[in-house]
Amino acid sequence: MRAEEIREMTPEERAQQLDELYQELFNLRFQQASRQLADTSRMRQVRRDIARIKTVMHEMEREAEEQ
Asked: Of 3, 17, 34, 57, which has the fewest beta carbons less than 10 angstroms from its beta carbon?
């Protein structure tokens, strides 16, 4: 997921996507603990997507405060 795509989303869509990513990360952690995780790089991708969404959300909040 790219930052440009995240900026085009509505605030509700961003919040929903963030919840879905947290749920996916939770599931991936369980798979890793039970040695069933096949694609270990997916955890890194999900963490980075979460960080991107949170960054864009924070940018939007700062822009709203400035105006």
From this structure: 34
